[in-house]
Write a sequence for this structure.
């Protein structure tokens, strides 16, 4: 997150915003690697049945882990993610940001939150297994079984974040920003006769970007069209970063 706030340079003209997306991807992959290792070890224990469990140590460690993960989850849940709407005044919009379409928050914060929730689930599973083993030592198989069971939930919780991260990296349209809706908004601006080369993408999950060519009729004022189109994109979709090229409408464009 700290790297993503670095100022743009001549080489990195968009800044370092994508670093948080790469961080989220690394976090998800690390969850998969760790979970895969735990699944392997749990399966090996079930197959061999040659292991001993220290129930007291297991209880103390898992209880402490549950407490720590609860605190971390609360902190991350309270962290403001931001949605890239800081350019309202520049765009001339006055709409309350709370009325804008919901944008996903910081990818890194979401990935960290999922990571902590995954650890919390695993810790709860270990705590439950430790309680069973402490009361009934012969049921030590509860330990690897709980690991396998909660690993499924942990892996499943990362799918949505992984899809969002890949959408950003592949320059896909952000969730909540529909191509047809944006095109209709541009065509609804007074004086606009057509639009082409419309592209929707995002620097990060919370910073949607729009670029397009806007064709206007001969009587329309280019500056007025540009101001209105930009304001409409802000008001309807929360887009603060857009590049619109205004050009005169030609018959062949139809």
């Amino acid at each position: 997150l700290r790297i993503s706030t670095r100022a743009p340079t001549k080489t990195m003209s968009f800044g370092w915003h994508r670093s948080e997306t790469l961080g989220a991807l690394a976090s998800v992959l690390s969850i998969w690697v760790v979970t895969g290792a735990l699944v392997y070890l749990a399966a090996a224990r079930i197959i061999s049945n040659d292991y001993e469990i220290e129930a007291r140590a297991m209880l103390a460690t898992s209880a402490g882990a549950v407490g720590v993960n609860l605190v971390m989850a609360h902190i991350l849940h309270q962290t403001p993610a931001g949605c890239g709407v800081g350019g309202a005044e520049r765009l001339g919009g006055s709409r309350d940001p709370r009325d804008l379409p919901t944008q996903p928050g910081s990818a890194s914060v979401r990935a960290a939150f999922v990571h902590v929730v995954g650890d919390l689930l695993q810790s709860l599973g270990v705590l439950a297994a430790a309680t069973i083993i402490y009361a009934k030592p012969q049921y030590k198989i509860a330990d690897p079984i709980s690991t396998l069971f909660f690993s499924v939930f942990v892996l499943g919780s990362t799918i949505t974040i992984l899809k969002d991260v890949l959408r950003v990296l592949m320059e896909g349209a952000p969730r909540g920003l529909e191509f047809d809706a944006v095109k209709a908004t541009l065509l609804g601006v007074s004086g606009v006769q057509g639009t082409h080369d419309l592209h929707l993408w995002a620097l990060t999950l919370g910073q949607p970007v729009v670029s397009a060519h806007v064709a206007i009729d001969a009587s329309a004022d280019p500056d007025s069209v540009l101001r209105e189109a930009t304001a409409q994109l802000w008001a309807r979709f929360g887009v603060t970063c857009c590049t619109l090229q205004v050009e005169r409408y030609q018959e062949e464009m139809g």
About this structure: Residues 80-103 have pLDDT under 50 and may be disordered. The helical segments are 18-48, 55-78, 88-91, 107-135, 142-157, 159-169, 179-187, 222-237.
